[in-house]
Design goal:
The chain has 498 residues and is α/β, with parallel strands linked by helices. The chain is built from 14 helices and 21 strands. The strands form 4 sheets. Strands 8-7-6-9-10-11-12 form a 7-stranded mixed sheet, covered by helices on one side. The chain has a 7-stranded mixed sheet with strand order 17-16-15-18-19-21-20, with helices on both faces. It has a 5-stranded mixed beta barrel with strand order 1-2-3-5-4.
Length: 498
């Protein structure tokens, strides 16, 4: 373990613009490595834990400093060559320079650390993160930014920690079809109709289905755009395989990617995807998981808790991704989701699968609906409460309603370890114990990790009975050697200072 650097007696304070040689001991979710000099924590993108590097201090804050990598001096055994030419500039990926098995070990440790530090679960057991066979070309949704400068438009993604745009010609993280669209759209900028459409566009959002190969493309503009409408024929030639083109407009903020209104300019606004035999129709702007391979892995894992039909309340249900999976196994599901459009899609997807009699959906803010008698009754009668909240996590009203209903089991799927730990701490203080903690790598090459946690009522269940609801068993064994090889462990990757 690398010892923490401390200033020598009488040493000068850290100086902006000066260069220092540092040992780095940790890695943050945003890709910044953590080192120390002069008694000050230094954050720098580029180094990895167990590496030494020369860095230049670019900013000094009251409690930390920011640095820029000048030269790597001692590389880590876990370092690998990034496969994207704009890695380090584009803000989409944070850890392409870290080998994939080490990424899985790092994310496992990230979940464990959050549960210990924030949740207070000192002895928590966290299973190794479940990853992908091939951790590239997985992302089924792409949001391009169109920047207007000079005589033309630049197409790209936002830079790291900035709203500046880095121009891109390709992205190895999105599906091959979406990646092809980037090059085609760049080449079509010289077509007058396409150039006119891009001139009024802020975002080009596309979604692609792995099972059907279908895609839909949406151009987001300030108002309903006649320029995009006039370019429909030209744009459909740019996007082969697209089944629809839509115009999203009237954004509610400058940071919004999609507008509040949509109109279909060609074909249909939805694609059809299939996961584990469940069919989903989703639009470019729908909340739908971006990595269907990992959704399938999560389905595989959850299936062990669905050997008998159960009554499930699905909070933050979106377009019904998990609700319909549960219903397919004979469960009665009551779903709540704030987005009324998502509820429309959930109901349509239920009909598509012939599952209307197994699901009920309510549109509204979860913290409001759980106070209503219908939802309170559903939660009291539920065997399992499943929740998959946004990154900010849940809230005390919702968590309090779960505790008050005394739901025997809670399955919590989270995309943020910190808010997950906070919410689990609340549930633990209100009668629940942790069961299984299983991370899934929904977002390879990034600092994000999905985590599934099961909980059970401490007063009403003993640890052995968790198998009845979820299966207190090892993770499923997937029948492919390539996947098994991708899960190699690097137990000594993370070096921490307590």
């Amino acid at each position: 373990m690398t010892s923490r650097e401390t200033p020598r007696s009488g040493s000068p304070a850290i100086i902006a613009g000066a260069e220092y040689e540092l040992a780095f001991t940790d890695l943050l979710a945003n890709g910044q490595a953590v080192g120390r000099t002069g008694g000050i924590v230094v954050f720098c993108f580029g180094p990895l834990p167990q590496e030494r590097a020369r860095v230049r201090i670019t900013a000094i804050k009251p409690k930390y400093a920011i640095a820029q990598l000048v030269k790597l001096l001692v590389p880590s055994a876990f370092r690998t060559t990034p496969f994207c030419s704009v890695f380090g500039t584009c803000g989409g990926c944070q850890v392409q320079h870290l080998s994939y098995p080490a990424q899985l070990a790092w994310k496992t440790d990230m979940v464990r650390s959050s549960l210990q530090r924030i949740g207070g679960f000192a002895e928590v057991e966290v299973r190794g993160a479940v990853g992908m066979i091939y951790p590239r070309s997985y992302r089924n949704k792409m949001s391009l930014v169109v920047e207007h400068a000079g005589a033309g438009s630049t197409i790209g993604f936002y830079q790291q920690r900035s709203h500046e745009v880095v121009a891109i010609e390709a992205c190895p993280i999105v599906t091959p079809q979406l990646n092809d669209y980037i090059g085609r759209l760049n080449r079509a900028r010289s077509v007058p109709e396409v150039a006119a459409a891009l001139a009024v566009t802020r975002h080009v959002v596309s979604r692609n289905a792995r099972s059907s190969g279908e895609s839909v493309v949406t151009f987001t503009t300030a108002q309903a755009s006649p320029e995009v409408a006039r370019a429909t024929d030209s744009l459909m030639r740019v996007f082969p395989g697209a089944v629809g083109l839509t115009n999203s407009y009237d954004r509610n903020s400058q940071n919004a990617i999609m507008g509040r209104h949509h109109r279909t300019l060609f074909g249909r606004s939805e694609i059809e995807e299939s996961i584990d035999g469940v069919r989903y129709r989703v639009s470019a702007g729908s909340f739908f998981q971006v990595n269907v391979e990992i959704v399938g892995r999560i389905f595989d894992f959850l299936r062990s808790g669905l050997e008998h039909p159960r009554r499930i309340v699905d909070l933050y249900c979106g377009a019904g991704t998990f609700a319909l999976f549960f219903a397919r196994y004979g469960c009665e599901v009551y779903g709540i989701e704030e987005s009324s459009q998502a509820i429309v899609e959930a109901e349509e997807n239920a009909a598509l699968n012939g599952l209307e009699n197994w699901v009920r959906f309510r549109a509204g803010r979860v913290e409001d609906i759980v106070r209503m008698q219908e939802a309170r009754t559903a939660m009291r009668e539920a065997d399992i409460v499943f929740l998959d909240p946004p990154r900010k996590g849940s809230d005390e009203v919702t968590l309090g309603a779960i505790a008050e209903a005394k739901a025997p089991y809670v399955w919590y799927l989270s995309c943020d370890p910190a808010t997950l730990a906070r919410d689990l701490k609340f549930l633990a203080a209100n009668g629940y114990r942790l069961g299984i903690v299983q991370p899934f790598d929904m977002f390879p090459q990034t600092g994000h990790v999905e985590t599934l946690v099961t909980l059970f009522r401490e007063a009403e269940a003993v640890p052995q009975t968790i198998a009845e609801a979820f299966g207190d068993v090892p993770p499923p064994v997937w029948p492919d050697d390539e996947f098994a090889r991708s899960q190699l462990e690097y137990p000594d990757f993370v070096v921490r200072e307590d």
